[in-house]
Write a structure and sequence with these properties.
alpha/beta, 60s Ribosomal Protein L30, Chain: A, Alpha/beta knot, 2 domains, 6-stranded parallel beta sheet
Length: 250
């Protein structure tokens, strides 16, 4: 059973300030919760009897066996699934040395939680383990973001802080960015390590960050003489860029 107070508490975690104060976040669904168990300490787990029958050894600080109706009252989803969990956030400090030896992403004020979650999922698919985010980038622990990662949040670490300060600490490291006046990504030499900066949905990469980018890339449309959309969605652009970087490494 899940109490009214607990349901109220779960709903309060939809707000960033409450998640930050409590240092927790919510995840729902068998696959997502399963990926996060063992990766993040689990503070609370509510699931149907059928789920517990299939997962009898799962541990959490607090557990509850609930009905589908009770779960629907606590859920953020239109179609609630059979398990909901509250996990502790990961506040481990960033180690920027990873940029010198692996490919990393940087997100400059990405606003949409769905876009952020999709980018995390893409990073997971392409083996990118670290994403550096500007302070105004959407919160990784937003319920919509968490769900959109499809479990990628268990394997990709996000770090928030000033991108200008971060890039300013990088010596002799490629810092890539996508621009309409950049070099064709398919003919440009690409490195197996460094930082790929992706910009805001409406404004692109900010002028302050743009000044620090030393490798400008462009994703050409096809055929180039054909009139087409003005730009790509940032998550789609990220997938194209990451795919080309990884293709070069095969």
């Amino acid at each position: 059973m899940i109490s009214k107070n607990k349901i109220k508490y779960i709903h309060s975690l939809e707000l960033k300030k409450n998640r930050k104060e409590e240092n927790v976040f919510v995840a729902e669904g068998h696959k997502l919760v399963g990926d996060l168990l063992g990766r993040f300490p689990c503070k609370f787990l509510a699931a149907t009897a059928e789920w517990w029958d299939e997962n009898p050894s799962v541990k959490a600080d607090e557990i509850a066996v609930v009905t589908n109706e009770e779960l629907s009252k606590a859920s953020f989803l239109k179609t609630p699934q059979n398990v909901l969990a509250i996990f502790e956030q990961d506040n481990a400090p960033a180690d920027i040395s990873v940029i010198h030896k692996s490919l990393c992403l940087a997100l400059d004020d990405i606003q949409d939680p769905g876009n952020l979650g999709t980018i995390i999922r893409l990073a997971d698919w392409f083996g990118i383990e670290h994403i550096f985010c500007s302070p105004n980038t959407a919160d990784v622990y937003n319920p919509k973001t968490v769900q959109a990662t499809m479990g990628g949040i268990a394997r990709v670490k996000l770090h928030y802080g000033s991108l200008t300060e971060l890039i300013g600490q990088l010596d002799d490291v490629p810092v890539y960015g996508t621009f309409l006046n950049g070099d064709n990504i398919y003919s440009k030499e690409l490195s197996s390590y460094g930082l790929i900066v992706m910009g805001n949905e409406g404004n692109g990469i900010s002028p302050e960050v743009e000044r620090l980018i030393n490798a400008r890339l462009y994703i050409p449309n096809y055929p180039q003489e054909r009139k087409t959309s003005e730009s790509l969605n940032v998550a789609i652009a990220t997938s194209v860029v990451c795919a080309e970087f990884r293709r070069r490494m095969l």
